[in-house]
Amino acid sequence: MSWFDQTLDLLAGKPCCGYRANGAAAVEPTALAAMALAAGRGEQAAEPALQWLADVQAGEGSLGIDAANPHPRWPTGWAVLGWRAVPALAEDPRWNAATQKAVAWILSFRGRSLPRSSSLQHDTALCGWPWVESTHSWVEPTAINLMALKKSGKAGHPRSQAAVELLLDRMLPSGGWNYGNTKVLGNTLRPQVQPTGLALAALHGEQSAAEHVQRSVDYLDRVLCEETTTASLCYALIGAAAHGHRPAAADRWLEAAWRRTLEHGASPYLLALTVLARLGRDCPWFANTLAGQQR
Amino acid sequence: MPHDHHAPAPATSSGPATLDRRALLVGTGAVAAGLIGYPIARRLFTARKPVFLARGQRYGGPLAQTIREGLLAVGFDPPRLRGRRVLLKPNLVEPAREAPHLTTHPAVVLAAAEVFRGWGAEVLVGEAPGHVRDTELALSESGMGAALQSERIEFVDFNYSRVRSVPNAGRMSSIEQFRFPRELFEVDLLVSMPKLKTHHWVGFTAAMKNLYGTLPGQVYGWPKNVLHYAGIPQTVVDINASVPRTIAVVDGILCMEGDGPIMGTPKRMGLLAVGLNPTALDATLARITGFDPRRVPYLALAEGKLGPIADWAITQRGERWQELVDPFAIIDERHLQEMRAGHSLVTEVTSPA
């Protein structure tokens, strides 16, 4: 049996999962597992995870980090991506209702803008999404929620367009993203692989971003290798795949990362990511999404 | 267990109201306070906190011996550690292989682990890297993962730990409670193990600021922007007031100056610093690196609440700090220049460009 199928078996055995093998179920890992199962085994396999996400959803539509912690609510976008993982799920009224509530909440939630400052290079007035209420917009939550809006047919919404603008503004001059600062007090910061992958995935289909995308894919090509750690590698491969790029050694690196993950605690979060990265262009984060949808 | 950062509870008398020798001394002290004034009386009646400094240290040297000697010199009581659990908290905020001066060196962490294990304690290491969601990457880039594995030391990823809510005992910021990793409350001693660096917002970072990295990213974000909005100096004090049982061992061997805590340049100091009171330790390290502790906002806020920062209230063990002063370069920002120990100590200013 291939590592891909073994992993799907593991995820199917405990679809409501956490960051650690024996950890409590959390929204982000469960949503990723749901996407992996829906894409790899069909929507039925994802149902327990999708139902758990719906059970955790608050009345106003958001989801916290787990059942015991309804705040902060940054994982809400991941749940939307779970409920929209494959086209067949969009036909189910349960997930449709959950998605609509979540999307309404996402649209009501925004990062805090700041007056322009000479200390920070980026445009602090641009609005994306924060990790936590009443704080600034950062790259990863903005990318997650942008993908969620696109998968919900809201690529043309002003918040989606603002999110694209923010991501382009936060890219580092030599390509790639970090958590979301570009230049602070005059010094240019370093890019990081994981946020770069996520931002690239969120920019799927954005023709206006072609030059930014190319520089960032080039950055990934420079830094990815067999030793790249699992989460970073998976996000990077997914982000590159969103733009039709896949390093020649991707499958070998992915299998090596999968083995390391099994040897070091078998985190369901990481295992789900390996499946999604293996799916490449079929990754549910952006597959079957058109950038111009409902524009 | 050492529990040194909270002010000691006032002594209470349960005996008959007779004028014993202690009361007489206290009474005499009170009269003396009235006569000689509050500042001097405060000196007379403030418990001094010991700080240990060792110079000439290197990562390949006998660090465990230095740490052991340092802990004993500041009054650490090893027999009370037998069978207890010790959590070491290094700084892995944003590790980069090309910048070893950014994070706590694994050799210092392994040396501390050797000391505490030698005293019969179980040791684990925990951290919530502040700018990196991929903790495996932080462990790999810093070399910490391989080092811990070689000594079979458990690592706890605080970023994704289950949390426990704790009231904000500092009350300097508007934050009412903190959500700390549960593991923090399942150990008997927390050891802050920072890298000694400049910090472009608050001047300087060592034992106290390092505890930002106890708070889980999944609750506070990457970066922990909630704390920035609530005020960095205020939340540094609040976190230190709210965590249990903390002492510190500081990696001051290869440090960072200039645009710290991320983009600064290496500065070799060869120091190891040990203290049971992180405030007193940081105040001493501030002096060594060219800052006036009274002008470093979080130290000023912590003074008297978490520990002393006045030189007279800190007992020096090992090397004298005065002989180790080597001001760190800071970037040319007014808020940083104002934290300097005095213009005469400003020897170098780097350009931010």
Structure description:
- The complex is a heterodimer of chains A (295) and B (353).
- Chain A has a two-stranded antiparallel ribbon.
- Chain A has 295 residues and is mainly α.
- Mean pLDDT of chain A is 96; it is low at 291-295.
- Chain A has 12 helices and 2 strands; from the N terminus they run αααααααββααααα.
- In chain A, β1 (183-184) and β2 (187-188) form a beta hairpin.
- Chain A is globular.
- Chain B has 353 residues and is of the alpha/beta class.
- Chain B has one domain (48-337): Rossmann fold.
- Chain B has 12 helices and 14 strands.
- In chain B, the strands form 3 sheets. In chain B, strands 1, 2, 3, 4, 7, 8, 9, 10, 11 and 12 form a 10-stranded mixed β-sheet that branches.
- Chain B is globular and about 55 Å long.
- Mean pLDDT of chain B is 88; it is low at 1-33 and 343-353.
- The interface between A and B is large, with 37 and 34 residues.
In short, what is this structure?
The complex is a heterodimer of chains A (about 300) and B (about 350). With about 300 residues, chain A is an all-alpha fold.
Q: How many DSSP H or I helices of chain B?
A: 12
User: Biggest sheet of chain A, open or closed, and with what strands and sense?
Assistant: 2 strands, antiparallel
Order of helices and strands of chain A: HHHHHHHEEHHHHH
Structural class label of chain B: alpha/beta
Strand tally of chain A: 2
CATH class of chain B: Alpha Beta
Low-pLDDT stretches of chain B: 1-33, 343-353
What is the oligomeric state here?
A: heterodimer
Domain count of chain B: the total is 1
Proportion in β-strands of chain B: 15-25%
Q: What percent of residues of chain B adopt helix (DSSP H or I)?
A: 25-40%
SSE string of chain B, helices as H and strands as E: HHEHEHEHHEEEEEEHHHEEHHEEHE
Mean pLDDT across all amino acids of chain B: 88
Radius of gyration of chain B: 20 Å
Q: Provide the spatial order of strands within the biggest beta sheet of chain A.
A: 1-2
Instruction: Report the mean per-residue pLDDT of chain A as an integer.
Output: 96
Instruction: Tell me roughly what share of residues is in helical segments of chain A.
Output: 40-55%
